[in-house]
Write a structure and sequence with these properties.
alpha+beta; 17 helices; four-stranded antiparallel β-sheet; 18 strands; single chain; nine-stranded mixed β-sheet; 4 domains
């Protein structure tokens, strides 16, 4: 089965069961201070899980682009990825456990759908603790479907609980489905979650709690279902592969790496790992750069994650002996080719991606050359101390593996434990720094962030009035304390322009304008002159937020919300800083006082 067939089958199944199909949201979350990237299908839907009305209904299904960097060290094995697609179906206060589980079972086992062997399926459910009881309901439903008792594992929160995506927010018990990928003849008659031959394929989450900042779990008024099935994994299962990288989602990429390196995939462990890391990281990097809210390599936040992905891939390429100049773009072209039908932004933005990759490769090469020079200075040392190795890494971006390689050639030793100590010290520091960014969490910070969210709409409208219609939003980042807003504009803003923008925003606040929301099709939104990202694909409806009074709207934006009801409560808007963000993009930092 191809990835295309499988993705489509999933969406068709849920369409037949009354779900509206929505398109993947951007990889860059909207106004969510708690994460850098969209990590799961539920992420863009949090406002709706919290009770806001979704414009297309209460039953949704999608395939969502996702990035998880928490698993980055595990990438290199057969099943972990930084970029993956998550198939998901959603009930926003519509059906709950019974229907969700029955639909999962039907999709997996019915001869009309995936037709998996029932005997090779097992499940786990939440066993209960002081926060929430044993999920007896889920247990009984699985029993009624014919799953034997021994194949229903009762596990703790660590295994069978999902969310919140940030520190606070919607969460609840889940039930996970596993498939036996070992010899079918030897399928065990009981389930043991330690055995890696039982592979997790699907997760049905029952979002019935809201975790608050004080750690309490309060029942959600609206009960929701959030399911997630990793496309890469289920595709491997459907094709009887023990390795996701053998599926069509990776095959062409691996071929190209074999070509470039002259080495073969799957022959020795080291080569295989290097090839997996390269194709995984470059695929993720291409999707991040090609996103309509795309990011460019830099030394902060998302840009830094992106830079690390690209450089790590280049380093593994070096290990494989790839010598070609600027080779990463070759992989990018194949990613774009293989996915463009599903994700048209890849085709649209491929030239930009190619240029960014070329630049980043050249920069990294220079860094490595500088690092080499520094390394030469240590040629009389018998041992490269951990501190020296760390300086090479920290100041010159010189990866430890390269230091070790060179040291080996020169018969020098590297004090790796000391290096790791240094690294840990540094990471602890940066973790503390970034923890500030996550302070409060999603639900808790909501009141303050909602205000900033509305202020961002006012800011965009004001910028367009003062600077011109070429100004479009290129990104935003909101915390409970401030707003950061990136927009397309070439020149530095003058003091006068900044003052005008501030005045316009404050005027709109003073007038206490109403904020209303209308649901309409994309075409209608376009006709109405709404701004925003027109990336919805299935002719679906979108929400347009209007600020102002009929016919005299100050701002019209396609947006998921939420927003304040009247601008009057925003306080005083103040621009703290205006600076360059990247080429052709300016950044404003602003606060509400
Ligand atoms: N949110 C759950 C997960 O990511 C199910 O979609 O696994």
């Amino acid at each position: 089965m191809t990835s295309k067939e499988l993705r489509q089958k999933y969406l068709d199944f849920f369409k037949e069961h009354g779900h509206a199909i929505i398109s993947s949201a951007s990889l860059i979350p909207d106004n969510d201070p708690t994460v850098l990237f969209t990590t799961a299908g539920m992420h863009p839907l949090v406002p709706y899980i919290m009770g806001q009305k979704h414009p297309v209904g209460r039953k949704l299904a999608d395939a969502q682009k996702s990035i998880r960097t928490s698993d980055i060290d595990e990438v290199g094995d057969a099943t972990h990825h930084t970029f993956f697609e998550m198939l998901g179906n959603w009930s926003l206060g519509d059906y709950f456990k019974e229907e969700a589980i029955k639909m999962s079972w039907e999709f997996l086992t019915s001869p009309d759908w995936l037709n998996l062997d029932k005997n090779r399926l097992a499940v786990s459910i939440f066993k209960g603790d002081e926060d929430a009881p044993f999920d007896k309901e889920a247990y009984d439903i699985w029993l009624s479907l014919g799953i034997p008792e021994k194949k229903i594992a009762r596990l703790p929160k660590k295994n069978n609980w999902w969310g919140p995506a940030g520190l606070t927010g919607p969460c609840g018990p889940d039930t996970e489905m596993f498939y036996w990928v070992g010899d079918p003849e030897k399928t065990p008659n009981s389930f043991n979650d330690d055995n890696p031959l039982w592979v997790e394929i699907w997760n049905d989450v029952f979002m019935q709690y809201n975790k608050k900042a004080d750690g309490a779990y309060e029942p959600l008024e609206q009960k929701n279902v959030d399911t997630g099935m990793g496309l890469e994994r289920i595709l491997a299962v459907m094709n009887d592969f023990d390795d996701n990288y053998k599926t069509d989602l990776f095959k062409n990429l691996i071929f190209r790496i074999e070509d470039l390196s002259g080495k073969k995939y799957g022959v020795d462990a080291e080569t295989t790992k290097a090839m997996r890391v390269i194709v995984d990281h470059l695929k993720a990097a291409v999707f991040i750069m090609a996103d309509d809210k795309g990011v460019t390599p830099s030394n902060t936040d998302r840009g830094y994650v992106l830079r690390r992905l690209i450089r790590r891939a280049i380093r593994y390429g070096r290990q494989l002996g790839i010598t070609e100049e600027s080779w990463t773009k070759e992989i990018a072209k194949i990613v774009a080719h293989d996915y463009q039908e599903i994700y048209p932004e890849l085709k649209k933005n491929i030239n930009l991606v190619i240029n960014l990759l070329k630049e980043e490769e050249a920069k990294f090469k220079k860094t490595l050359e500088q690092g080499l020079k520094e390394f030469e200075k240590l040629s009389n040392e018998k041992i490269i101390t951990g501190k020296q190795a760390f300086d090479l890494y920290q100041t010159y971006g010189f990866p430890l593996e390269i230091t070790e390689e060179l040291a080996l050639e020169k018969k020098q030793a590297v004090d790796k434990p000391e290096f790791e100590n240094e690294l840990k010290k540094h990471q602890d520091l940066s973790r503390t720094a970034s923890a500030g960014m996550f302070k409060g969490g999603l639900a808790d910070a909501s009141e303050a962030t909602v205000k900033y969210h509305t202020a961002a709409h006012l800011l965009l409208a004001a910028l367009r009035k003062v600077l011109g219609g070429h100004v479009i939003q290129k990104g935003s980042n909101i915390t409970a304390e401030r707003l950061r807003f990136d927009f397309a504009h070439k020149e530095k803003m003058t003091d006068e322009e900044k003052q005008k923008v501030e005045n316009l925003v404050n005027q709109a606040i003073k007038e206490n304008l109403p904020v209303t929301c209308e649901e309409m099709t994309l075409d209608q939104a376009r006709e109405k002159g709404a701004h925003g990202i027109f990336d919805a694909k299935y002719g679906e409806k979108v929400s347009v937020y209007l600020i102002g009074r009929e016919k005299l709207y100050f701002s019209k934006e396609i947006c998921g919300g939420p927003h304040v009801e009247n601008t009057g409560i925003l306080g005083k808007f103040k621009i703290k800083k205006e600076e360059s963000s990247s080429s052709g993009v300016r950044r404003i930092k602003a606060v509400l006082e």
